[in-house]
Amino acid sequence: MIRVFIIFLILLASVWLGLTLSHDPGYLLITINHWSIETTLAVAVIGLVITFIILHTLLVLINRINRLPEDYRLFKAKRRAQKAQAKTRKGLIEFSEGYWSSAKKHLIKALPDTDTPLLNYLTAARAAQEMGDNQLRDDYLREAQQSMPDAKIAVELTQAQLQLANQQWEQALATLRHLQDLAPHHPYVLKLLAHLYQEVRDWPQLIALLPELQKNRIVTGYAFEKLRRHAYHQAMLDLIRLSQADALHKMVKNLPKSLKYDSELNASYCQFLIHNNQQVLAETILRTCLRREFDNQLISLYGEINVSEKQLPFAESLLKKHPDSYALLICLGRLCLAQDLWGKAKSYFEQSIAVKPTPEAYLELGKLIERFGEQADANHSYRQGLALAVER
Is residue 4 situated within a structural domain? Predict the structure, then answer.
């Protein structure tokens, strides 16, 4: 709108000037030494305008000629950048399709003129690993670091990922611990560390990392509880295998509140106690856990203990709520045997088989019948149990 208004004013001024000059064209005289120029004002103005246009055109042309080398250089640079982008795209497509060698070649060729050197180096490093050339992979990672120093975490994360994928556990651990120093709460660093500790079965380190995983919401809800239970259970099994009783007792004492009565953990711990002649402590733990939550594995272990006559009444009290538990019926049969209640024991074993036939029940029943001298029936029970065991 403003431009239209300005044009209108110029046209108005031109009309006014034309009308004015038509009445009085004016007179211009220029004298230089013996030279003199005289003309009307209108011709002089037209001459000045033409002279200005010619001079301006010459200056623009000279400027363009002077800029030709620079324009040519920019044109060449643009062409090289376009070619580099094309090579990068081709390399990325080839990498996605699994052509590692060709992808690496195109990505590296594009480097001098690409505006994404970090992407090229990191992808080339991945391609080099797929080709089995770890040295070349590390070289590209170093180049990536130098091409963009601010991307140190991104480069080392890629390095850690590649080392983990290549099962270079020690190198991956060193890389991830360095990353943890640089960024203590980085979610992906913590996630990779958790994965590494599981791979190398370093359960104490994983347990120490659990609070950070929960605090930074890297693993939450059921997945976190499952991971924590698995870590503590595996750590317990390692201590049991190495017969490190003191460390095991300490771990059980310091279990998180949510795992204090976990059936899987307490089953493994009580099994260790039973094998190490600590039946009294095992019975106390099992009874406490069974009162809170019934579990077949725990009740089976309870039947292996004989430290008190009160065990049978306690186990029978559980029968009211769990009459169809084959494991509880086997446990009751064993507790009856411990108190020489043979007829009652036989009844419990037979009830267990009626609920669910198991090799354990047939074995216990066979041994009991053998005591009565009924060898044929005992052998039949043994054969039934053996057949079930083979089918498992």
Answer: no
CB 196 within 8 A of CB 164: yes
Report how far apart, in Å, the C-alpha atoms of 46 and of each of 24, 43, 60, 294 are. Answer: 16, 5, 21, 111
Q: Which residues contact 258 (CB under 8 A, 6 or more apart)?
A: 225, 228
Residue 97 lies in a domain: yes
* Tokens 């036939």, located at residue: 357
CA atoms 320, 326, 327, 333: torsion sign: positive
Give me the CATH number covering residue 106: 1.25.40
Taking phi over 0 as left and psi of -120 to 50 as alpha, with beta for the rest, 26 belongs to left
CA-closest candidate to residue 271, choices 307, 338, 312, 263:
263
- pLDDT category at 374 given cuts 50, 70, 90 is confident
Contacts of 114 (CB under 8 A, 6+ apart): 81, 84, 85, 87, 88, 120
Does the residue 369 lie in any domain?
Answer: no
Does residue 214 contact residue 237 with C-beta atoms inside 8 Å? Answer: no
Instruction: Report how far residue 29's alpha carbon sits from residue 39's, in angstroms, rounded to the nearest whole number.
Output: 7
Average pLDDT, the chain: 87
- Average pLDDT value for residue range 15-19: 60
Phi first, then psi: what are they for 370, rounded to 5°? -65, -30
DSSP 102-157: HHHHHHHHTGGG-S-HHHHHHHHHHHHHHTT-HHHHHHHHHHHHHH-GGGHHHHHH
Spatial separation of the C-alpha atoms in residues 26 and 42, rounded to whole Å: 8
Block residue for tokens 């001459």? 47
332-347 pLDDT tens trace: 999 999 999 999 999 9
Q: Is the confidence at residue 49, as pLDDT, over 80?
A: no
Domain membership of residue 329 (yes or no) is: no
Count of the separate structural domains present in the chain: 1
pTM: predicted TM-score of the whole model, two decimal places: 0.76
d(CA 332, CA 346): 10
Give the model confidence (pLDDT) of 130-143 as tens digits: 999 989 999 989 99
Bridge partners, residue 29, by sequence: 38
Which structural domain, as residue segments, surrounds residue 85? 81-147
